[in-house]
Design a protein that fits this description.
- Strand 1, helix 2 and strand 2 form a beta-alpha-beta unit.
- This protein has six helices and two strands; from the N terminus they run αβαβαααα.
- The chain is mostly helical.
- The model has no long low-confidence stretch (mean pLDDT 84).
- It folds into two domains: 99 residues, no CATH class; 33 residues.
- The N and C termini lie far apart (38 Å).
- A two-stranded parallel sheet has the order 1-2.
């Protein structure tokens, strides 16, 4: 898998990334059937929903109301999402973890050419975060 340019929107990369996820799960012999996949409202589309359902996963995507004017449709979408809201809120914990690394300047912008050096700094930062969390 090759790194993509920064200026490509995540929605464009969804199909390739999702297929890679399914492939890796198969290679590792992980049973991810009926697992939840949480995405933000930028991924709310019928095509993405169908792709996720076809793979046997359950989508938790915050509704994107995209200028909907019909109040009944808005309420219907929000009511459908209400039962999944607790699962969607768990996504925040993961997002917060990714944000913690931004505290470390070495990790915000990749200065290292070697992958092993870059990952070493990442592991060091995550270790420091965990150390602080445990021992305060």
């Amino acid at each position: 898998m090759k790194a993509k340019a920064v200026n490509i929107h995540d929605c464009i990369l969804f199909n390739e990334s999702f297929n890679n996820l399914i492939e890796i799960a198969d290679l590792l012999e992980l049973d991810i059937q009926e697992s939840f996949i949480t995405l933000d409202s930028g991924f709310d589309s019928i095509a993405n929903q169908n792709e996720i359902l076809k793979a046997g996963l359950r989508s938790v995507i915050k509704p994107n109301l995209r200028g909907m004017k019909n109040q009944d449709k808005i309420e219907q979408k929000l009511n459908e999402f209400e039962s999944l809201l607790n699962i969607y809120k768990e996504r925040f914990k993961i997002e917060r973890c990714f944000a913690w690394k931004d505290v470390y300047r070495k990790l915000v912008i990749r200065y290292e050419r070697l992958q092993c050096t870059f990952m070493g700094f990442r592991y060091l930062a995550y270790s420091m975060i965990n150390y602080r969390g445990i021992f305060k």
